[in-house]
Amino acid sequence: MPIVPDVKDWTWVLSRPCPECGFDAAATAYEAVPALIREAAVRFATVLDRAEVRVRPDESTWSALEYVAHVRDVCRMSDTRLGLILAGASDGEPPRFPNWDQDATAVADRYNEQDPARVAAELAEAAERAARSFESVPPERRGLRGARSDGAEFTVESFARYILHDLVHHVHDVRA
């Protein structure tokens, strides 16, 4: 059984393959990220055709619909955060992202009660927007930095790969 790195230290995802989903950020070119975001969105759309889309495998695991709604919101959030990084902070420090509690959002937005067809359409739109945003960043701007509210810093490049890992990992989670 593989040893899962400490999830509080997110940087492991960028330096070695994920022991669960196999994604290798270090071997993924930035230029490949947009296409891989689009590919993940297509794979998630097929998951929403399943009859058991709202069924949770156990009490602590989201249903397929909840995962896809989460991924839609990850794409939306990544586009917003990328915009913040590119805009920069006026004080010269990396812009800070507000905290996002994904579990609280899933409950508050009632992910498991949402219409699967609408979630699929919204994911397609959000993934395409995120993919285009990452595509539009010229190489000389990919070193710009941003920071989460917990102080973890990203560059545009590391943020792109981090977000892509989230999508690929959830494709693995729902067996898409």
Automatic annotation (TrEMBL):
Highest taxon of source: Bacteria
Domain DinB-like: 38-172
A matching Pfam family: DinB_2
Gene3D superfamilies from the UniProt entry: dinb family like domain
Descriptive protein name: DinB family protein
Species: Nocardia niwae
